[in-house]
Amino acid sequence: MSIEQSDHSTELTEHPATFPNPGLPPHRPRLGDEDPKAAKRSERLVLLLFTVSVLASIAAIVGYFAIPVDPETGSVGNTRLSTLIIGLGLGLGMLGIGTAAIHWAKSLMNDHDKVEERHEIAGDAETRSTAIEMFNDGAKDTDIARRPLIKGALGGALALAPLPFLVPLIGNLGGDWDISRFKRTAWAPAANGDRIYLATDPTNRRIKASDVTIGSLFHVMPWNLPEHPNYLDEKAKAVVLLVRVDPQDLKETEERASWSYDGIVAYSKICTHVGCPVALYERETHHLLCPCHQSTFDVTDEAKVVFGPAGRALPQLPIDVDENGYLVAQRDFDEPVGPSFWERER
């Protein structure tokens, strides 16, 4: 059985070069456009949101002064509570301004669609004049002159919102501008000549060279540092990473040949990029890794930078052992630890 297929000619339809502009959809009035009470409710809500912003900013400032963080005592509880209150105040202050501005624009300002024809970008006088006129029209559209409460709340919120950030920043600057503090750490020899032992962080246990096996990593601080009156400040500068590698793998210059002991090397834990803790160790490659921005340092080559944004090697702590086999610091770092600052000599 055969099926005959008829050949139908298809008539192609030509499309027009342009389409007529359908125009904008009809404007749908909001509830506040037709009901003055609804508009008043929207106004009160905007006022409430600005007020929340003002109160949150004030609470953050009060919390900063009411819960002082004493660096000498190093109260972790006060630090956490103060940070929490300042953070919540700053966040709610900014959130209140943002949500109030959005609700103000969507419920009280003109919501008619605007059309601006595309044209070549040009900064002639007419364009600038039109832009200024549009800006002025927008300012008039806010109708802020007829809403003094919102005007006052907006001004107060904008004035107070940055303070939870600025007040702690300025307050923590303090009166101590002794930059030489950054150039010395708790590893500096004691005035009475006592040795500074290497101890585990945070258990404060002295470390013997025999405790450090090849491939192991120790987080280290000066022995008995927790007894220091400025414990947290001093620890922030003095933390060290202790690693043992095969002595044959070390690429030491003649100057630093005596800074290690039988393959054990000690480097500052503070990244030279922005000061994050260098806490990760790749045993196979002998690389120390900073998790913040992935700066990588080669333990076998004087902790020089092999990858990442850090600009210089980790400072090395010269170490030795005493007559009982405990690891001790020969002296302080030969250069400032952490990221570079404006008074650095190296």
Automatic annotation (TrEMBL):
Keyword Disulfide bond among UniProt keywords: yes
Pfam families xref list: QcrA_N, Rieske
Region annotation (Disordered) ranges: 1-37
Domain Rieske: from-to ranges: 237-328
Tagged with keyword Translocase: no
Its membrane topology: Multi-pass membrane protein
Keywords, comma-separated and alphabetical: 2Fe-2S, Cell membrane, Disulfide bond, Electron transport, Iron, Iron-sulfur, Membrane, Metal-binding, Oxidoreductase, Respiratory chain, Transmembrane, Transmembrane helix, Transport
InterPro entries: QcrA_N, Rieske_2Fe-2S, Rieske_2Fe-2S_sf, Rieske_Fe-S_prot
Source species, domain of life: Bacteria
Localization per Swiss-Prot or TrEMBL: Cell membrane
Biased composition (Basic and acidic residues): 1-14
Membrane spanning stretches: 45-67, 79-104
Cited function: Iron-sulfur subunit of the cytochrome bc1 complex, an essential component of the respiratory electron transport chain required for ATP synthesis. The bc1 complex catalyzes the oxidation of menaquinol and the reduction of cytochrome c in the respiratory chain. The bc1 complex operates through a Q-cycle mechanism that couples electron transfer to generation of the proton gradient that drives ATP synthesis.
Family note: Belongs to the Rieske iron-sulfur protein family.
Protein's name according to its UniProt entry: Cytochrome bc1 complex Rieske iron-sulfur subunit
Organism: Occultella gossypii
